[in-house]
TrEMBL record:
Family: Belongs to the ACC deaminase/D-cysteine desulfhydrase family.
Annotated source species: Sphingomonas morindae
Keyword RNA-binding assigned: no
Residues in Tryptophan synthase beta chain-like PALP domain copies: 14-322
PANTHER family reported for this sequence: 1-AMINOCYCLOPROPANE-1-CARBOXYLATE DEAMINASE-RELATED
Protein name, per record: D-cysteine desulfhydrase family protein
Keyword annotations: Pyridoxal phosphate
Protein origin, superkingdom: Bacteria
Cofactor dependency: pyridoxal 5'-phosphate
Length: 337
């Protein structure tokens, strides 16, 4: 861990997050189902929790070390990253400004007002809305310059907090998983994650590689970019993250596995398979996946198991990345016919 510890980090979560076996779900998927475990990165004490807090530990740490007074970031209207940035900034005593774009074509009141939107306001963030297609990062940078002219100092990070520095949060998570495997005398054949801004997959890949482990154990399901673009972005970001840890190592293209099978019509657009996955995990395990990320990635895991992939009985690890507020924003999608 020494490669990370010299960097400023603001502690936002209690680690390690638990890893739990989902035996009732396994039973419901039938005899060919391998052991399925969930890493509970939805169980974090700040702001409703979720994967962005691991990145924000490094990002807020750097913002404080630079003497910033404001944290600015970007995302979609129902961004979990925006909500957790607002919570983490509140905790750190920083002002928070969110540049949110209308990149999901939903007009219903719940999407516009509930879920993360409600929480952004509760955490005291200033929200600036822009139409779909806006270069939100450019808006954020212009705002930071405007603040600088008045003597203030802003820290800017783009959507998902997926700068190489932010991705160190998931490199650290890779070390955490390896330690948990060793303690439980287990080795996960596959580590399944959703892929949005690519930082979770990239950070895990960099962390596994730095530890001499195999990044090809990770399989992500893109929920945002088309599959080839997602794979290229993940490889690029994983390489940049690894360079912060161990510049002597590199990653090869075939070490980054991304599937496009669950993207459906695009980012934030519900699919039948996502709705089925969210319901199945809720009814068998009492656990909550979100509709934009975890629900789609879990649908990918279920589809692979039903197709008979991974019938060797080797354990699988699904990373539960949080996003519960998103469920409340997608209430119409879950109305039973
Ligand atoms: C952002 C997010 C992801 C995707 O993580 P990336 O690092 O952006 O790929 C997955 N799940 C949830 C709930 C998220 O909010």
């Amino acid at each position: 861990m020494s490669a990370y510890l010299h960097r400023p980090r603001s502690t936002l979560i209690d680690r390690p997050t638990p890893i739990q076996r989902l035996t009732r779900l396994e039973e419901s998927l039938g005899r060919a189902c391998p052991p399925i475990y969930a890493k509970r990165d939805d169980l974090m004490g700040l702001g409703g929790g979720g994967n962005k807090l691991r990145k924000l530990e490094f990002l807020i740490g750097e913002a404080l070390a630079q003497g910033c007074d404001t944290f600015i970031t970007t995302g979609a209207r129902q961004s979990n990253h925006a909500r957790l940035s607002a919570a983490a900034a509140a905790r750190a005593g920083l002002a928070c400004e969110l540049i949110l774009t209308e990149s999901v074509a939903r007009e219903d009141e719940t999407y516009r007002r509930n879920g993360n939107v409600l929480l952004d306001a509760l955490f005291g963030a200033t929200v600036v809305r822009r139409p779909a297609g806006t270069d939100a990062l450019a808006v954020a940078q212009a705002r930071a310059e405007q603040l600088a002219a008045t003597g203030r100092r802003a820290y800017v990070v783009g959507s998902g907090g997926s700068s190489p520095l932010g991705c160190l949060g998931y490199a650290l998570c890779a070390e955490e998983i390896i330690a948990q495997e060793q303690a439980a005398d287990l080795r996960f054949a596959r580590i399944i994650v959703p892929n949005g801004s690519a930082g979770t997959h990239a950070g895990l890949a960099a962390g596994l590689k730095a530890a001499g482990d195999a990044p090809a154990r990770i399989l992500s399901f893109t929920v945002l970019a088309p599959v080839e673009a997602a794979r290229a972005a993940t490889l690029d970001l994983a390489g940049k993250t690894l360079a912060l840890i161990d510049p002597a190592r590199g990653l090869a293209g075939d070490e980054i596995l991304v599937s496009g099978d669950q993207l459906g019509e695009g980012y934030g657009v519900p699919t039948e398979a996502m709705i089925e996955a969210v319901r199945l995990v809720a009814r068998t395990e009492g656990l909550l996946l979100d509709p934009v990320y975890g629900g789609k990635a879990f649908a990918g895991l279920i589809a692979a198991i039903r197709q008979g992939a991974w019938h060797g009985g080797e354990p699988m690890l699904f990373i539960m990345t949080g996003g519960l507020p998103g469920l409340f924003a997608y209430e119409p999608a879950f109305r039973s016919a």
